[in-house]
## 1
Amino acid sequence: MCGITGCLALADGAGPDTEWVGRAAMRIAHRGPDDEAFFADHDLALGFRRLAVIDTSAAGRQPMHSADGRFVMVFDGEIYNYVELAQRLLARGVSLRSRSAAEVLLEMYAWLGRDVVRQLRGMYAFAIWDRRNRELFCARDPFGIKPFFYALTAGGHRPRSGPARPGRHRGAGEHDLPRHHRHADLRVLHGRRGVHGPAGGPGGLPQADGAGR
């Protein structure tokens, strides 16, 4: 069990609320007592609370950067078939720097993009930021074992994993990533910012326009 938090600035000219990300990470400290780390650029901030299990070394720290530096990820969960996926990456000539399932997931995403979710067996919630295309991809396991909450506020889009403290229910304005729609794209592209969920069906995600509404 780990904890992830983040804030994506949707309004033009606005930056992420890094103070909120820090406070949110503090409130889910019980989910990751071993380490705390953050990433921020002018559109996004990510926070992570770590419970080190498989790879307890510094190589498994998050937010984690892909080998080429393009992607940044925070991840909570278990990928049961990560050894098999790691072998596929090694066969492609990808050099893995750690023994963590997180790195395998991140490099699989660098290879397959959003189709990576079709390859995963496990329980998970994660967010991956594409620094080149300014796109945030969020996903969780199809059964919703790992929680993933998000809120659209005046300060931007704020995803996080798990209640802020044990026994707490979601807050006002918070939504759960729909169970049958297990991923969402959040884009900051060509001056247009918004939240894009899977097309059609129940539980679709709300839209946000360029003004952050």
Note: Residues 3-196 form a domain with the Glutamine Phosphoribosylpyrophosphate, subunit 1, domain 1 fold (CATH 3.60.20.10).
## 2
Amino acid sequence: MGSLIRQNELMDTQPSLIRISRKLERWRDQGRKYKVVIDGQIVGAVHNGESRDFTVTKGEHCVRIRIDWSGSRDLVLALDGGQVKTLMCNPKGSAWSSPIRMFSRRGWVDLYETGADDVA
């Protein structure tokens, strides 16, 4: 029982990861990078077909993707110590809806959890 408690305490002090994968896209935004914003700070970018890991502390974090003046909706995640949350991003809608979405501040990119959580 004591070793289980120590193991849980150790996990609480471990950093957590937010893994963001971007689907490979043939047309829309193919050559453009998506900026990753965590808790209001730009922490990196994901290119077409790329996955990146971002280290965060345990707790609640707000994640968003930006591209120019638009991007995704905010996604709030709660992470335990040592936990990995996997997110996926890709252009929202079709090429036909692009002219309409172009003027939306949060309608250009889809950002969602994949459900594939893990322990780092």
Note: The two ends are 23 Å apart (CA to CA).
## 3
Amino acid sequence: MTTVDHANQPELHPEFHPEHILTPVLLGVDGQGSVQGVDQETEGGRALPRAFLKWAGGKSQLLPKILPRLPKRIGTYFEPFVGSGAVFWALAREGRFDHAVLSDRNAELITSYRAIRDDVEDVIALLAGWSHSESFYYALRARDPEAMSPVEAAARMIHLNHTGFNGLYRVNKSGLFNVPFGRYKRPRTLNKPVLRAASRALRTVDLLVADFEDVLPAARPGDAVYFDPPYVPMSGTASFTAYEKSGFGEPAQRRLVLALEDLQRRGVHALLSNSDVPLTRELYQGLRCEKVQARRAINSRADKRGPVSELLVSV
């Protein structure tokens, strides 16, 4: 593994301004379960696009490290593990790409993105009529999103995301969402400007339910790929990778390394983030790896939530 001293970082590209990045906070939310600080991000009186979902492991805090390591100008931007899409939204705010392909194996997540893109006003109307209570949360959680319309499924995901414990998205082996109710006094389950800005940014974006390997053949020189896979656990009990029922274990991590090497051979710029553990250091041996510090977002012990080393791998 080729490591790079964190102190010797490349200069930010001329169009990148760190003050445009939100102050990083735990999971990007305040004590009320609302996303902090970005309602003021406007241009010409309209909200700028940003994540409408909270996400454990979201990359807002690492944007000052990630964005300079992506090309100044991107043909098609691929994000095969989109999650809350922090990197996509940041690139969209800067107008850095001509086209984007966002994908994930989490079908419920992609359904939500599509509904925001195609039917945002219907999603807003549905969210506006829903209450915040523990009983409503569990009744909504018990509904099968596959039996709902895309608009209903999207509204369900947004509401549960902003009222569930710590903004987690976790499913059991049967694929059922099982995050408990969060103790927020005034969660903001509906943010109309944010949803409408997201809809505008997604209008020309391809949204796919797909394994990462299935979308990469379309990548060409001049494009860029950012991988934010489920991280290799820091310990045997630290895994929060159950964002879809089949999980993402070591065989999938090794497939990801082969995909990186293939993109390198094809001249496609790619960047990947993952935990800094013995397995990842072995997997990425021979690739350019940089250690960066990130705040540990979730741990049952408060004394284990401090800075942790992560890897940025680029080809």
Note: Residues 24-38+49-277+284-314 form a domain with the Rossmann fold fold (CATH 3.40.50.150).
## 4
Amino acid sequence: MRSPSADSVRHDLVLVGGGHAHIQVLERWAMAPVAGCRLTLVVDRPVAVYSGMVPGFVAGQYTSVDLEIDVRPLARRAGARCIVAAATGVDADARRLLLGDRPPIAYDTVSFDIGSTVAGRDVPGVREHAIPTRPIGGFVRRVDDVLMRLTDIVFGIPFLPFAVVLVALLRPSIWNIILTISCLLWRTTARVIRSQVLSLRERPFVRAARVAGASDLRIMYVHLLPNVMPMSLLYVAFGVAWAVLAEASLSFLGFGDPRMVSWGQMLYAAYISGSIRHAWWSVVPPGLCITLFTASVFLIGREYERVVNPRLDRG
């Protein structure tokens, strides 16, 4: 939609900030503009963060990307001017909005929706143990940094010593082994998938979907998930193979579930009985089964990747 010409402008409406109320104004203005009124949006950064989705973000239902709204396509659809600058003050007498590093702009009506800043940082313990949710952009970055630092810490934990200590404390059982493997299995997959999603969100087709008005769920399931699925299936195959090897390693060390039969338990029984040196038939079959199983899971994952992403066959 085109902006009204300077000669036809009878009223200047200036929106300062990319809050939810101003987003709604832009959407409604795109559908039903007011004749003779020029709309101007002033934001300090072109990407606004919607604070209403923070509870879902904290609960893990949304990513930090889902909270972001690029206001520039909305402004173009509404025929509004979009000025990326920080509002530093208001000259009420001259009806001018003062901007940093830019000349002031005139207004007839001005609206402020710039969010709020959490007070109470001087309360003892708040600065050290609390994360303010306003400004919301800083809160999202802090939460993302905390999650990534947690991943870094988990990367520093060696599997076998951690598993041996945990299983020894909880007693050997298949459920404790599953718990031990689950505690460390996710770290590589989480980092790789996060990196791929951060790369995909900057692709033109995702930006085009946002401009077209696609919802966050549609972007996730129609545009992001199909592109992440091949990598996810590959890491599922890696995870299954790694879990089998981890269980076999723990069982061979004597920390497996004594009530269950596994390839690792067979190797452990051959080792403690001394037959591992002279009875090859007690060692080779379980070792060969572990090798064939992990290889088959990897090949199945690769084939699923070809089914999900047919472009791999074109090469």
Note: The chain has two domains: 9-156, 158-314.
